[in-house]
Amino acid sequence: MRTQVAIIGAGPAGLLLSHLLAQGGVESVVLETRSEEYVAARIRAGILEHSSVELLESVGLGDRIRAEGDHHRGIYLQWPGERHHLDFVDLVGRSVWVYGQTEVQKDLIKARAADGQEIHYEVTEVELHDDHVTFTDKSGQSQRLDATAIAGCDGSFGPSRQAVPAAETYEKVYPYSWFGILADVAPSTDELIYAWHPNGFALHSMRSATVSRLYLQVPNGTDPQSWSDDRIWDELATRLGHGQNGWKLTPGPITDKSVLPMRSYVQTPMRHHNLFLAGDAAHIVPPTGAKGLNLAIADVALLSKALIAKVKEGDERLADRYSDDAQRRVWRCTHFSWWMTTMLHTSGDPFDAQLQLSQLKWVANSEAGATGLAENYAGLPIGY
Ligand SMILES: Cc1cc2nc3c(=O)[nH]c(=O)nc-3n(C[C@H](O)[C@H](O)[C@H](O)COP(=O)(O)OP(=O)(O)OC[C@H]3O[C@@H](n4cnc5c(N)ncnc54)[C@H](O)[C@@H]3O)c2cc1C
Q: Which residues form the FAD-binding domain (predicted)?
């Protein structure tokens, strides 16, 4: 087989890249280890930044976001006894949309199918070489795919990351995890609540008008099945301030429980010869700043332009700059995600707790503090 760009991974980075390349007249083949059903149903991120929505709209993927997504002007920041609304539209003229990663995946899969895109699901033994990829297809046959460029969009556990020799890596592992639940109940809030509490951080998020997504800070290694539903709702009620100023948390049937460890990871450079990394293959952020999915989108917005110029015109200039250009935003988002995480998650140290409360009060009450958070959360323009 031969194609212009071989894409490893059918997550948001890989599928959006193949969509953007197709719009620029460049053909690609996508290889994915999982099944189509698995990829379409994987529950992960849920917040789209302003510029992610603008980009998706500009390439014909915005209709369902506008029709079924939930537009949020900002977020609530909270600590015991106080809740403050930060209005991003007033502060920076930008906003976010609640639209689940599963829906982004479904839209991308549908758009790629409508285009006749070749996606090989359930492949195994994927090996990267400078100008080709070898793999075993679903029927068990060994295949070779030659390509002008290879895009490693295979997340944090795929082979692309390891295929960049002598890469520099930066990593921080946090001493806590997120215990996430999905519940069949209408959200008890109109916008996300980020709550600092002496027992640990809690987040009230949502997926739709009838499905809530909530998180609790828990120690690493927590077994989600060791928490009863009642215990989860009681702890959420305590940390989110049920009963304060008349606010109520409404519990409902829990349909999913999972524990997500938190880490920051950046690998540089994001290119080695014809191999280019994008999304989680190159970097991981803790989910507190809602940046993982948005960074994947921003990476492939840059990478698609670089690959179109390289493949169609032999112009390597954008490809040569890709890693440096992408890393500017990667480090901004890495810092913001670390900053949100360390401001909101308790460490057990009373000194740290006082610093966190001081920081939260400054962010909530000073226009300069609130604007900094709003600008980063709603997201900087693509190409920052
Ligand atoms: C469990 C989990 C929960 C998360 N929750 C949140 C959240 O609550 N909020 C938030 O903002 N972000 C969250 N994230 C982060 C966000 O989902 C990611 O940043 C985003 O999915 C990145 O997209 P991607 O396409 O780069 O990588 P991925 O979505 O990981 O896609 C990579 C794809 O490559 C495939 N692949 C792997 N190995 C191979 C191989 N050898 N060959 C071919 N294909 C391969 C994988 O199956 C996958 O489909 C979460 C991530 C994880 C892992």
A: 2-337
Q: Which of 19, 50, 72, 120 is catalytic?
A: 72
Q: Among the residues of the chain, which ranges form H helices?
A: 12-23, 36-41, 50-58, 63-68, 88-92, 101-114, 229-240, 292-313, 317-344, 350-365, 367-378
Q: Look up tokens 């670390």; give the residue.
A: 338
Distance 355 CA to ligand 1 centre (A): 33
CB 308 within 8 A of CB 354: no
Q: Whose CA is nearest to atom 3 of ligand 1?
A: 44
pLDDT, tens only, 180-232: 999 999 999 999 999 999 999 999 999 999 999 999 999 999 999 999 999 99
Ligand 1, pocket residues at CB < 6 Å: 8-14, 31-34, 39, 44-45, 101, 126, 153-155, 157-159, 260, 279-280, 287, 290, 292-293, 296
Q: Is residue 189 part of a domain?
A: no
**What integer pLDDT is reported at residue 383 of this predicted model?**
79
Give the contacts of 347 (CB within 8 A, at least 6 positions apart): 175, 353
pTM of the model: 0.96
Comparing CA positions, the residue from 284, 353, 342, 382 lying closest to residue 50 is: 382
Neighbours of 48 (CB within 10 A): 26
How does pLDDT run across 100-138, given as a tens digit for each residue?
999 999 999 999 999 999 899 999 999 999 899 999 999
Range of the domain at 143: 2-52+101-171+263-347
Give per-residue pLDDT as tens, 15-71.
999 999 999 999 999 999 999 999 998 888 899 999 999 999 999 999 999 999 999
The pLDDT confidence band at residue 85, using thresholds 50, 70 and 90, is very high
Does residue 369 fall inside a structural domain? Answer: no
39: domain CATH number? 3.50.50.60
The β-bridge relationship of strands 168-183 and 212-219 is antiparallel
**Residue 17 lies inside a defined structural domain of this protein:** yes
> φ and ψ at 233, to 5 degrees?
-65, -35
322 domain-assigned = yes
Residue type, 59: V
Number of folded domains in the chain? 1
Provide the pLDDT confidence category of residue 366 given band limits of 50, 70 and 90.
Answer: very high
